[in-house]
Design brief:
With about 475 residues, the protein is α/β, with parallel strands linked by helices. It has 14 helices and eleven strands. It has helices at about 1-20, 50-60, 80-95, 105-120, 135-150, 155-160, 175-185, 205-220, 240-250, 290, 305-315, 345-380, 410-425, 450-470; strands at about 130-135, 165-170, 195, 220-230, 255-260, 285, 300-305, 385, 395-400, 430-435, 440-445. The strands form two sheets. The chain has a seven-stranded mixed beta sheet, sandwiched between helices. Strands 8-9-11-10 form a four-stranded antiparallel beta sheet. It is globular and about 65 Å long.
Length: about 475
């Protein structure tokens, strides 16, 4: 049964990959459409895989937003690729629990090696260590907790927050919401997250950061950690890492670098200047499951002092003790969860299949396409860039001359209407952000198989749809 059914599934998968452009990019279902088609209780009698698969095609697929469509330009990509999918099939078949070396030596040692490959490819110092986490959110939480323990000499883990209730964490106003979530989970408290204003480029203002730290020291707070964003979520702004690193080094603060999306571009020598100052940082995260063609979840997390990380999270009840403890890496001690998937297998497949050269070529191609769109918007009389293009992200808005004197609120309503019309069409999917109170469309160009024709067609459709909205 498995062999026959698996062949059917793979045929469907191959057809889907070939024809994904035929689906509406954003699911067109209404709330509860899927829910109401599913039985209210577990079936008492078992059902055939054929019947379940038919319902998958009939009920589930219409409720899918197709992230692998080359017309997906929303958020940031969550890409996959042929080698990644095939490796994930093997991972599911093996069904291992890679929490310790003994539970699957290949999982641990392959992870060590591929993280060394990535570390060296993005020119991190050779004394840094890497581990795969499930998401950048988890990696950032791990850094903040490790910073907390290092600063308290691991007393918070032992005794709680007595004597350490005044920690402060710093990030820019543009930093991802996962930072706020992390400080809440870590027990530091939302009110102790200090959001630093940004400059004209929407990057953290390092001078203000220094002022805030000095102010907090004077008021009896304990500055703990700074999160520098290399590629903010809203506009891909780049915080001045080198300057921030000088400040954190002076005050002996933990410096975590959040490059969740943009970090893939560190494979390109022309973007490695953004890492200036990294030697004075403590940890860095980026997601191969975004712009490096490895399907979710697969987050590359690097740390300078692996002992600080392990001492923060290690715990060894009797039932987890093995004869190799102390001789090998047990990655269950390198982060929050005990259980670990065999994530390194798909990353290994991707890195070997494309090679460094192939990955660089795809990244450069995506940036080239984005530069073309940037030029089109710049030369347009009806659209404007909200901020200069950053890597493969363009933030722009519709501002036709005929409506030049409309107030900002009216322009915002028009752009929101444009966004909804584009997404409702099923031809493409964009998201938005707010920049200086302006409603701005974001177009992220980085899907694995996106081509020049997709960008040209998307731009033509944006212009036509916008024109049709005019009175």
């Amino acid at each position: 049964m498995f062999r026959e059914t698996a062949h059917q599934f793979v045929d469907w998968m191959a057809d889907y990959m070939e024809n994904v452009e035929q689906y509406p990019v954003k699911s067109q279902v209404a709330p509860k459409d899927i829910y109401n088609q599913i039985e209210n209780a577990i079936p008492y009698e078992g059902e055939s895989l054929e019947a379940i698969f038919d319902d998958f095609k009939k009920i589930i697929v219409p409720g899918i937003t197709h992230w692998q469509s080359p017309n997906f330009f929303a958020y940031f990509q969550a890409n996959t690729s042929t080698p990644s999918i095939l490796a994930e099939m093997l991972t599911a078949t093996l069904g291992i629990q890679g929490m310790k070396w003994d539970t699957s030596p290949a999982s641990t040692e392959l992870e060590e090696k591929v993280m060394e490959w990535l570390r060296d490819a993005i020119t991190l110092p050779s004394n840094w260590s890497g581990v795969i986490q499930d998401s950048a959110s988890t990696a950032t939480l791990a850094s903040i907790i490790t910073a907390r323990e290092q600063k308290s000499k691991f007393e918070v883990n032992k005794k709680g927050f007595k004597g350490y209730t005044n920690f402060r964490v710093y990030c820019s106003e543009e930093t991802h919401s996962s930072i706020e979530k992390a400080v809440k989970i870590a027990g530091i408290g939302k009110e102790n997250l200090v959001k630093v204003p940004t400059d004209a480029t929407l990057a953290m203002d390092a001078e203000v950061l220094a002022t805030y730290i000095n102010r907090d020291l004077a008021n009896g707070h304990i500055p703990l950690c700074v999160i520098a964003a290399i590629g903010t979520t809203g506009s891909m702004a780049m915080d001045p890492l080198a300057t921030i690193a000088e400040i954190t080094k002076k005050h002996k603060l933990w410096l975590h670098v959040d490059a969740a999306y943009a970090g893939a571009a560190f494979l390109l020598p022309e973007y490695q200047y953004l890492m200036k100052g990294i030697t004075d940082a403590d940890s860095l995260v980026f997601n191969p499951h975004k712009w490096l063609f490895t399907n979710f979840d697969c987050t590359a997390y690097f740390i300078k002092d692996k002992d600080a990380l392990v001492n923060t999270f290690s715990i060894l009840p009797e039932y987890l003790k093995t004869k190799t403890d102390g001789l090998v890496a047990n990655h269950c001690d390198w982060g929050i969860p005990l259980g670990r998937r065999f994530r390194s297998l798909k990353l290994w497949f991707v890195l070997r299949h494309y090679g460094l050269k192939g990955l660089q070529e795809k990244l450069r191609y995506h940036i080239k396409l984005t530069k073309w769109l940037e030029a089109e918007i710049t030369n347009s009389n009806e659209f404007e860039l909200a901020v200069p293009r950053s890597m493969n992200l363009v933030c722009f808005y519709y501002k036709p001359p005929i409506l030049e004197h409309m107030p900002l609120e009216a322009h915002n309503r028009l752009n929101e209407k444009l966004l909804n019309a584009l997404n409702r069409s099923g031809n493409m999917y964009l998201t938005h952000t707010k920049i200086e109170k302006r409603f701005v469309l974001r177009m992220s160009i980085g899907q694995t198989n996106v081509a020049e024709s997709h960008i040209q067609d998307a731009w033509s459709f944006i212009k036509k749809t916008a024109k049709d909205l005019l009175p």
